[in-house]
Amino acid sequence: VRDLQTGDTELISVNAAGTAAGNGASRSPTINTDGRYVLFCSTSSDLAPGATGVSEKLFLRDRQSAATFGLTGSNSVEKAAMTPDGRYVAVVRTSSPATIGLWDSLLAAYVATNVTGSAIESLAISPDGIRIVYFNAAGLSAWDWVASQTWLVANGYAGNSAGLRFSADSRWLTYAKSATVSSALTNQVWLYDVVSKNNRLVSHRSGTLGVNASDNSDSPDISADGRFVIYHSTSTNLVVVDTNGMPDVFLYDALTGTNILLSAIGVGVPPGNERSLAPLFSGNGRTLVFRTWASNLAVNDMNRFNDILAYEFLYLTMVLTNGAPTLNWPALPGQIFRVESKNALTGARWQTNHAPILLNGNRASFTDPAPAASHRFYRVVRKY
Predict the structure, then answer these.
(1) Which candidate, 10, 30, 130, 131, places its Cα nearest to that of 84?
(2) pLDDT tens digits, residue range 12-56?
(3) pTM
């Protein structure tokens, strides 16, 4: 682990005596949000008591107590997932029968077990640590270990790059699945409401809710607030303007139920001139990145190789001062905005507000001098 502030580097795969690195290869580290816990795989046999042998095992390092725990004993690691705070780790402990164990990092012990039967293809744990979701031969299932309940989320099979991503509040889950085990072209992306237990098709045909898009969709990720799902697709009928015949990156808005082509020169314009894939949200959901071979999505992209592009969402805040709403949002020097409003979302057109927009450092603000008597909806449009 590298401390970016002090410049210090700490060895995580250290032997139990604390004197040297373990006697095997270590890889695939995952660190929790405050840096206390590191989950990793290793073939070492001298990292923790009871974790011997040359098979690749799963370990958890508690940097605060300087202790390493072997979560799979001497057995090979299969699947595992850790909550963002590191409190809980879901581990596939045995494969015959398939058994999921829940490790409590504060207690340094397993606190719950669920025998799932058939082999587990992939799994994830909700940020609050209460629910574990997993794909096996029965489909996608969820296990609430607090309520001691297990239920089927959806029939089908884990698609290529199944996702299994939760929103920050643990309510929303996005995933990709196929209808049959052998047909990758049936992969579609879904959004599941853990509270109502309802599924919603994300990768639907343009203008037709609930109808699968024409081709494969996968690799979904979800914004922290659960509103947006980003994913990769080779479908050509998710939006009207997808005419490049290449895999692209799409953004689904759960509020409106619509998709937009993100790997494009702009909204509603033709897509990039090459393929785009591997989308991912930042932890706060306000920035997403994706990989692309397109050369026309960013200025001065002339290297003729794949690149990583970042897309930042324009999140704004609103406060009331003596009944007048003031909008505040991030801005960069040289950017020009306009503020539009409606008194009802069903209104035909957004109306431009002509009050001045003030710039202060990296923030912009607008105060409506004549607010509506009841309510008003606003949007900020960046002109360039």
Answers:
(1) 30
(2) 999 999 999 999 999 999 999 999 999 999 999 999 999 999 999
(3) 0.84
Rounded CA separation 87/95 (Å): 24
Q: Which residues pair with 14 in a beta bridge?
A: 21
| 8 A C-beta contact, residue 364 and residue 328 | yes
138-160 pLDDT tens trace = 999 999 999 999 999 999 988 77
CB burial readout 205-220, b (16+ within 10 A) else e: bbeeeeebbebbbbbb
User: Radius of gyration of the chain from Cα atoms?
Assistant: 24
Judge contact between 156 and 177, C-beta under 8 A.
Answer: yes
Structure tokens that stand for 364 in this block: 């912009």
On the 0-12 / 13-18 / 19+ scale of CB atoms within 10 A, 347 is exposed
β-bridge partners, 329: 364
d(CA 36, CA 64): 6
d(CA 222, CA 230): 6
What is the 3-state secondary structure of 238-262?
CCCCCCCCCCEEEEEECCCCEEEEC
Phi, psi of 184, rounded to the nearest 5 degrees: -65, -25
Whether residue 140 contacts residue 133, with contact meaning beta carbons closer than 8 Å, is answered with yes
